[in-house]
Amino acid sequence: MKIVIAPDSYKDALSARDAAAAIAAGIERELPDAILHQCPMGDGGEGTLDALLAATSAERRTASVQDALGREATAAWGWHEASRTAFVELAEASGLQQLKRDERTALDSTTFGVGQLIVAALDAGAESLVLTLGGSATNDAGAGMLAALGGRLLDSRGNPLPPGGAALAELATLDLDGLDPRLASLTVQTAVDVDNPLLGPRGASAVFGPQKGATEADVERLDQALSHFADHAARILGEDFRELPGAGAAGGMGFAARAFLGATLRPGIELVMDQVDFDTLLADADWVITGEGQLDGQSLSGKTPIGIARRAERFGVPTIVLAGRLGDQWQASFDHGITAAFALADGPITLDEALARCGELLADRARTLARLWRVGSQG
Predict the structure, then answer these.
(1) Euclidean distance between CA atoms 109 and 115, whole angstroms
(2) Residue 377 belongs to what H/E stretch?
């Protein structure tokens, strides 16, 4: 029996690698002879860099950057010498998981550190860049990244704008003349984990702003500010990318990647599956077990469990999801290849308890699945 264990990370609790290990431990207690392939996954958010480094044998490097609040931090990125390819994960520099819950501020957080990682890649001689989006603490439509790469965002008095999405409401001049000239020859692929546009009720601010600390009033303010930024960009570039599927990823970084880096946007999970040669793992698998913090209607927009289930369905392999929580409209996942889904909690439990016990709960659920499989296989 062969089981592919391919979870994403469980936000604020476990990395994808640790989650895979916990699931494997649970299965091994009941099915010690099973062949288990641990394949940590990512759809663009935190942990995606680890999956890509493992798949490509790229070198892990670090750079000194600013985090989402402008504090000095160290962020990892990947370098593949033979192909001159750099792997940059937004969440390493500007990730939500790096902030305490009471530090999250969608109004003022910045992607400046992501731009610093791209500069580090250019300094290494990068000709190709894989930029993974997701897990962001930011809602600045990539304005911080743009500033780090040499762009100037000025108010009506000619002063640089302060960091954050809210400040974009005061944008009077968007000057791209100082952008790093090496960007012109850089090929960029961007992994996105959602298909949301930049603005509106499905946009970056409305859908993802609240998890980054935005109030209802903040959401309206941010949406208007990002719209103003998009107006300036469209006038300069001669093309408007605000409605592009994925433009709203990572607080609008999808928009910035396409508009200012000329990036190709791809569903993150599809990009990662291709990099890790996931089809080979599926070819003779009996099961796939995947999961992440929450399975809900938004998961259909490109999250890891749905991407894996769609791919596994082509091979006739059942896909089981172990989710921290089953949210609104999670049942829709059954129409996209999910065979069964289970929440981790084993009774009334607070969020802090669930986060602390995530590994234990994953192992317990996996053990239960293994027992069920064993009974079923015995007829």
Answers:
(1) 14
(2) helix 358-377
Tell how far CA 252 is from the center of its chain. 13
With tokens 């798949």, the residue in question is 55
Q: Which tens digits make up the pLDDT trace of 69-105? A: 999 999 999 999 999 999 999 999 999 988 998 899 9
In the DSSP assignment, the letter for residue 10 is B
How would you label 125-154 residue by residue, b for 16+ Cβ within 10 Å and e otherwise?
Answer: ebeebbbbbbbbbbbbbbbbbbbbbbbbbe
Helix/strand/coil for 115: helix
Is residue 20 helix, strand or coil?
A: helix
Query: Letter for the amino acid at 244?
Result: L
Residue 1's CB is within 10 A of a number of other CB atoms, namely 15
Q: What burial letters (b/e) apply to 24-50, b meaning 16+ CB within 10 Å? A: bbbbbebbeebebbbbbbbbbbbbbbb
Domains annotated for the chain, with CATH where assigned, are: 14-40+278-342+350-360+371-377 (3.40.50.10350), 48-269 (3.90.1510.10)
Tell me: the pLDDT tens digits for 203-251? Answer: 999 999 999 999 999 999 999 999 999 999 999 999 999 999 999 999 9
Amino acid code (one letter) for 125: G
What residue type is 74 in one-letter code? T
Q: CA 334, CA 44: separation in Å to the nearest integer?
A: 23
